[in-house]
Structure formats: structure tokens, C-alpha cells
Specification:
The structure is a single chain. The protein has 157 residues and is mostly helical. It has one domain: Winged helix-like DNA-binding domain superfamily/Winged helix DNA-binding domain (Arc Repressor Mutant, subunit A, Orthogonal Bundle), CATH 1.10.10.10. It has seven helices and two strands; from the N terminus they run αααββαααα. The protein has helices at 5-20, 26-33, 37-49, 74-81, 106-124, 127-133, 147-155; strands spanning 53-56, 62-65. The longest helix has 19 residues, at 106-124. It is elongated and about 60 Å long. The chain starts with a helix and ends with a helix.
Length: 157
């Protein structure tokens, strides 16, 4: 299983917003995440449409989390961004198996246990857990900037 790039960046964008605790301009998010503005806006639109982030217009506007960091799990973000989180096709809802062996397959039974472990791991980690695990002095979003340049950047949003 490999998460798509959008999912990785969505988690990073949410972590940035959680670290700031206030509205962050898309320019600052892009700078922190190292992604283009168009790609960030696509990610942030999906997160907004699913009730994770909100956007505020104006000179002090930007994106902010709608869900407290201690209540937003990695699993919730991943489910928004990914078509599936299943590690194998036989674990999907339709339980497709080209051999028709879903009920008796020892490999599938192993996959079920691994899938359960992964699901539980992603459901048990919140953005707050990631913030708490950060190293002292580690930049999790935007480096501090003076108020005048920040306001100008936010107007461009």
C-alpha cells in the first residue's frame, strides 16, 4: 500500500494549519509544503468540501482547520483523499477474488489482519499527536514573519 502524493500533502497541509492555530494563506501553505498553488488549492478544496478546513477571505484571511487537532485523525484525512485504503482487492466491499476463494484463502486472512492493524494505527493518530511528537524548534508550518508582509500576502489570497 502506498498513499498517493495528494494524501501526503493533505496531511502536511492540515498539520501546518494545526500548528498555526489560525488562518494561513495558501501562499504560506505552498511554501511550507513545497507544492504549487494549484495543487494546494485542489487539496484544500477537497478538505473544505468535506468539512475539514474553512477558508476566510480578506486581509487576515486564509485557510483554517474546522476540526480541533486532537479530534482529526490521519484516517479521516486519508479517507477523503484516497479512493481506497485497502491493501488488496479482495478486501474491498465487493470482496472480489479472481479465484473465488475469499472464504478459504489463507493469504486473504493474513491481509485482513494486516488491514485491521493499519486501520487501527491510522485511526489512533491525531494531528495533535503529530504536533506533540515534533522535535523542539521543528518548523511545522510557516516561519514567523513580520505583520506587514503577512498582511500583504494574505490580501493576494
Amino acid at each position: 500500500m502506498q498513499l498517493n502524493l495528494m494524501t501526503d500533502y493533505a496531511i502536511r497541509c492540515c498539520l501546518c494549519l494545526a500548528a498555526e492555530g489560525k488562518a494561513v494563506s495558501s501562499k504560506d501553505i505552498c511554501s511550507f509544503a513545497g507544492i504549487s498553488r494549484g495543487f494546494a488549492q485542489k487539496i484544500l478544496r477537497l478538505l473544505r468540501d468535506n468539512g475539514v478546513v474553512d477558508v476566510t477571505m480578506g486581509s487576515h484571511g486564509g485557510y483554517s482547520l474546522m476540526v480541533p487537532p486532537d479530534q482529526l485523525t490521519l484516517s479521516e484525512i486519508m479517507n477523503i483523499m484516497e479512493d481506497t485504503l485497502c491493501i488488496n482487492r479482495c478486501l474491498e466491499e465487493d470482496r472480489y477474488c479472481s479465484r473465488g476463494a475469499v472464504e478459504s484463502c489463507p493469504v486473504r486472512r493474513f491481509y485482513v489482519s494486516v488491514q485491521g492493524y493499519l486501520d487501527n494505527a491510522f485511526k489512533s493518530v491525531t494531528l495533535q499527536d503529530l504536533l506533540d511528537d515534533a522535535q523542539p524548534g521543528q518548523v511545522l508550518c510557516c516561519p514567523a514573519e513580520d505583520e506587514s508582509s503577512g498582511a500583504d500576502e494574505k490580501k493576494a489570497n
